[in-house]
Automatic annotation (TrEMBL):
Pfam families: PDH_C, PDH_N
Protein name: Prephenate dehydrogenase
GO MF annotations, alphabetized: prephenate dehydrogenase (NAD+) activity
Keywords: Oxidoreductase
Keyword Oxidoreductase: yes
Domain of life of the source: Bacteria
Organism encoding this protein: Microbacterium aquilitoris
UniProt entry tagged with the keyword Oxidoreductase: yes
């Protein structure tokens, strides 16, 4: 395993020093991951407090004026991304510069309008993050197995491309090549609009009665999880990718109007079909999402009651291992007011009977089986 990590790290290690501008969640996480591979990392941030915190947590050392980086990673908010890229290209004429901003077209157009030489710049974006930001939330493993979009153009040299691709591979990500336009349309659909939908739904809870909220289960928690994200950052992201987001929102608004119209008179001809078609189309969409290892593969779910006491999850996984059942995915839903949770275990269809019968024989209570 160490040899494999060393092989992945070689592209960055041979480039020498890596400079990360922006010591927030993504920048610090990149720093932690590279340092774990033995890479020399220097950090810079407009906030001295944020920089000191990232250094204290071990994401890298503070940058010095005499640093000569071979790779610069710009990890700053979208509204200053173009400014920082331009500055770093000028300050480090021998370095390849990439950024990890969640919007790719607007910074690129701004730099082109200024006449900046972009031959050493390659835009990129790791599809990774957390609801909470800042250096204190950084983790070295958040990129592992996640897509990392690379936006190169005809000016990109093979050598420079290898450096940025090497960074993504070093951190365990999988490479995806897109144009900036393709990237921004894609993230509008799978990231930016879901953020807005989660926030809008969670916003309805503000004036809700406490009795209603006590009924909340894992479904609504899953749907609104990302609503805890930072408003300041999302104002910038959505503003920078406004048109692709509006396109998706307009289509979504039309769908909502259709289903709301059907529910206003559920017994009218075609109303029930409109509702059923809405749910069915959602089923089809979910099935298209890549699952484990990027596969579009259907699993079945065995639901087990798990007492809220120490060691129960360890015993559950141990019993599944003894049964030779591979856990494809797992989610624990806590029951409000009860001292137990519901463990939702995703398994391949052929393992369902083995899991249910074997766990029941070991004293586990099977709550239900979802096909």
């Amino acid at each position: 395993m160490t040899d494999a990590i060393d092989a992945r790290a070689r592209a960055v290690r041979t480039s020498g020093l890596v400079r990360i501008v922006g010591a927030g969640l993504l920048g610090s996480s990149i720093g932690h991951a590279l340092r774990a591979l033995g890479v020399d990392v220097v950090l810079a941030d407009a906030s001295p407090a944020q920089l000191r915190l990232a250094v204290d947590y071990g994401a890298g050392r503070a940058a010095r004026d005499d640093d000569r980086p071979d790779l610069v990673v710009v990890a700053v908010p979208p509204d200053v991304t173009a400014d920082v890229i331009e500055r770093e290209l000028g300050a480090h004429p021998d370095a390849v510069v990439t950024d990890v901003a969640s919007v790719k077209l607007e910074p690129l157009l701004a730099l082109r309008e200024r006449g900046v030489d972009l031959s050493r710049y390659i835009g990129s974006h790791p599809m990774a993050g957390r609801e909470r930001g800042g250096a204190i939330s950084a983790r070295a493993d958040i990129f592992f197995g996640r897509p990392w979009v690379i936006c190169r153009d005809e000016e990109t040299s093979a050598r420079d491309l290898a450096v940025v691709e090497g960074l993504a591979l070093d951190l365990g990500a999988s490479l995806v090549e897109m144009t900036p336009e393709e990237h921004d349309r894609s993230v509008a659909l799978i990231s930016h609009v879901p953020q807005l939908v989660a926030s809008l739904l969670a916003g309805r809870f503000v004036g809700a009665e406490d009795a209603s909220l006590r009924l909340a289960g894992q479904g609504v928690r899953d749907t609104t999880r990302i609503a805890a994200s930072a408003p300041e950052l999302w104002v910038q992201i959505l503003g920078a990718n406004a048109q692709p987001v509006v396109d998706v929102l307009d289509a979504l608004a039309a769908d909502l109007t259709t289903v709301a119209g059907a529910l206003r008179d559920p017994d009218a001809p075609g109303s029930r079909r409109a509702v059923a078609d809405t749910i069915r189309r959602g089923n089809e969409g979910v099935e298209r999402l890549p699952g484990k290892h990027g596969q579009n593969r259907r699993f079945e779910t065995v639901v087990v009651m798990v007492d809220d006491t120490p060691g129960q999850l360890g015993r559950l996984f141990g019993d599944l291992g003894d049964l030779d059942v591979n856990v494809e995915d797992f989610r624990l839903e806590h029951s409000p007011g009860a001292q137990f949770g519901l463990g939702e275990i995703s398994v391949v269809p052929s393992a369902v009977s083995v899991a249910t019968d074997g766990l029941a024989a070991r004293g586990w209570k099977i709550a239900s089986l979802n096909d």
